[in-house]
Amino acid sequence: MVLKNRLKEARAERGLSQTRLAEMVGVSRNTISSIETGQFSPTAKLSLVICIALDKKFEDLFYF
C-alpha cells in the first residue's frame, strides 16, 4: 500500500524548499523529493517529524 501525501503543497505554503525541509528533518533532499513523488513512503517516525516541522496534523499531510 502506498502512502500518498500533500507534502509538496504543505511545504510550498510554508515557503520552504525541499533542501530546507530536508535539513529541518534530518534527511536528504532526494528523500523529500521521493516522498513527494510517491516513490518512497516515510517511516512513522519520519512522518511525525515532517508533520512537526510543517506544523501540520498527520491526516493533513498523509493518506492512503
From TrEMBL:
<dbReference type="Pfam" id="PF01381">
    <property type="entry name" value="HTH_3"/>
</dbReference>
<feature type="domain" description="HTH cro/C1-type">
    <location>
        <begin position="7"/>
        <end position="61"/>
    </location>
</feature>
<dbReference type="InterPro" id="IPR010982">
    <property type="entry name" value="Lambda_DNA-bd_dom_sf"/>
</dbReference>
<protein>
    <submittedName>
        <fullName>Helix-turn-helix transcriptional regulator</fullName>
    </submittedName>
</protein>
<keyword id="KW-0238">DNA-binding</keyword>
<dbReference type="GO" id="GO:0003677">
    <property type="term" value="F:DNA binding"/>
</dbReference>
<dbReference type="InterPro" id="IPR001387">
    <property type="entry name" value="Cro/C1-type_HTH"/>
</dbReference>
